[in-house]
Design goal:
Elements lengths: L21 H19 L2 H4 L7 H21 L5 H45 L1
Helix pairs in contact: 1-3, 1-4, 3-4
């Protein structure tokens, strides 16, 4: 079925008997999320068309947080490496969706403004 990490509970990989604490699990996915948010809010990105905006970034953070809390709850014996891998996948998925939504919205508003200009030319010559 591939190398995907499922949402079903299972023992930690490699026979690791050392349990990862809840704080370590949270820190594992939070560091990945913080890194992604840092890239999204970088000063070079903030002034460009690639900037998603605060609302979309907050939405990405909430979705990743929800997904990762569910993953950690469903996989209590997951290692920090597994958690980080899942966090990277989840963050990438939600960030990509936010980019597509931004592209869709930008395209819609560009078409809307173009149509507005066309109507103004038709009305006022």
């Amino acid at each position: 079925m591939g190398n995907t990490i499922s949402n079903t509970p299972r023992p930690a990989a490699g026979g690791n008997t050392q349990k990862t604490s809840a704080a370590e699990q949270t820190n594992a996915w939070q560091s990945v999320l913080d890194s992604a948010v840092g890239r999204m809010t970088d000063s070079e990105v903030k002034g460009s068309l690639k900037y998603l905006g605060d609302g979309r970034i907050d939405s990405v953070k909430e979705k990743v947080k929800t997904d990762m809390e569910a993953f950690v709850r469903d996989n209590p014996n997951a290692s920090t490496e597994e958690i980080k891998k899942k966090a990277e996948e989840t963050t990438s998925k939600h960030e990509t969706n936010a980019v597509f939504n931004k592209m869709r919205d930008d395209n819609f508003f560009n078409k809307l403004m173009s149509r507005r200009k066309e109507l103004l030319r038709d009305m006022w010559g």
